[in-house]
Amino acid sequence: MARPRIIVTGASGKTGRVVVGELLKAGYPVRAMVHREDARSARLKAQGAEITVADMIDAGQVFAALKDVQRAYYCPPYDPYMIQGAVAFATAAKEARLEHIVGLSQWLASPAHPSLMTRQQWLVDRLFSMTPGVAHTIVAPGWFADNYLMPIGISAHLGMFPWLFGNSRNAPPSNEDIARVGVAALMDPSRHAGKRYRPTGPELLGAEDMARAIGRAVGRSVKPVPAPVWLFMRTARLAGVPVDVIGNLRYYIEEHRRGAFELGAPTTDVLDVTGRQPEDFETIARRYAAAPHLRPTLGNRLRQIMQSIRAPLSRGFDLERYDRELRRPFPSEPEFAPDSRVWRREHGIAESAAPLSSPGPGPGLGGLSPMGLNAASRASGTGSFAPARTTII
């Protein structure tokens, strides 16, 4: 009996590429949907995936991509038009008579969140759940382990672990574990339809815990260093992170400091869904530490020093101007996720439940209200900008 064909959107991203690889190994025909053909899509093709190039907000391209497909891993485009792409995908899914959509969502998804993307993600989840005849599973991780390991070069060469989050903690999942949960759901819709999963790592960790794990991975002593949000924003811009992503990260940093990722963590979802224990943070860090640019050479160290000097001298985005010119809507009464009764009810968090640790003063955005966060974004500096799109990865 032929296995169902599965489309993977965001297929060259950090969870999408793993989903493609795992499905191919299990013998499923996979159509990998990408924005463009490049070295990453070439690797997927070499593994045996069928490549289709499509823009999620182009309904015609989405309809063509879903032809003769039975199931889908939906990794939404991380841009202001997320909801338009989701409507196109849901319409095409109904037309193509898809059996099952496994959607990558967010732990924070709620209707009045200050982040536009997070509000839209909440709507996307409901849209797919209401699509007639199509089963739906939600995979909603929190802050990925990958996010903490982006500045691992600073740890490897300078012995510092930049930390933005005060005294809060998280049980961060690996890209691979998030993907494996999605793959397990795709392979057995009857078991997973209608369910929501939150992949996490095996234990709650704070700054000191992660710094020690990274130190063991890179083979040197590493200490957590409080980092200001404005410096993070400028460093992210230098690394090519689009303005849309940075504009939403400012709110996620504040959520982290408030303890949003501690609530309900860790879960057993990775083990329950995949039958495998979740990867611990040190295991993930060791995988990243194998990168050639982290080798303890003089050239690598000098490059890291130069990047560290360049970041505070660079220009940041003017996020308020970007939001204003894009005419982004903003809730009349914005709420961070743990302050939202809707979010607590949907995630099974008791009204009285509080984070296990207080975020403390820290170097982040402080106790500002969501509206105040807009004003505080000026700390990221001013500069030119252009609308950009990327993928949640």
Q: Could you characterize what this model shows?
A:
The protein has 393 residues and is α/β, with parallel strands linked by helices. The chain has 2 domains: 6-142 and 174-197, 3-Layer(aba) Sandwich (Rossmann fold); 145-171 and 201-391, no CATH class. It contains 18 helices and 11 strands. The strands form 3 sheets. A 7-stranded parallel beta sheet has the order 3-2-1-4-6-7-9, with helices on both faces. Strands 5-11 form a two-stranded antiparallel ribbon. Helix 4 (82-96) runs parallel beside helix 5, helix 7 (152-158) crosses helix 15 (298-313) and helix 11 runs antiparallel to helix 12. The chain is globular, with a radius of gyration of 20 Å. Mean pLDDT is 89; it is low at 361-371 and 373-393.
Characteristics:
393 residues; Rossmann fold
Structural class by SSE content: alpha/beta
Beta-strand residue fraction: 5-15%
Radius of gyration: 20 Å
Q: How are strands sequenced across the largest beta sheet?
A: 3-2-1-4-6-7-9
Question: Shape from CA axes?
Answer: globular
Helix content: 40-55%
Largest sheet: 7 strands, parallel
Mean pLDDT: 89
Order of helices and strands: EHEHEHEEHEHEHHEHHEHEHHHHHHHHE
Q: Got a strand count? A: 11
The end-to-end span amounts to 33 Å
- Count of discrete structural domains: 2
Number of helices: 18
Low-pLDDT stretches are 361-371, 373-393
Topology:
Blueprint: E1 6-9, H1 16-25, E2 30-34, H2 39-47, E3 50-53, H3 59-65, E4 71-74, E5 77-78, H4 82-96, E6 100-104, H5 116-129, E7 135-139, H6 145-149, H7 152-158, E8 160-163, H8 175-187, H9 189-192, E9 196-197, H10 207-218, E10 223-226, H11 229-238, H12 243-257, H13 269-274, H14 281-289, H15 298-313, H16 319-326, H17 341-346, H18 370-376, E11 390-391
Parallel strand pairs: 1-2, 1-4, 2-3, 4-6, 6-7, 7-9, 8-10
Antiparallel strand pairs: 5-11
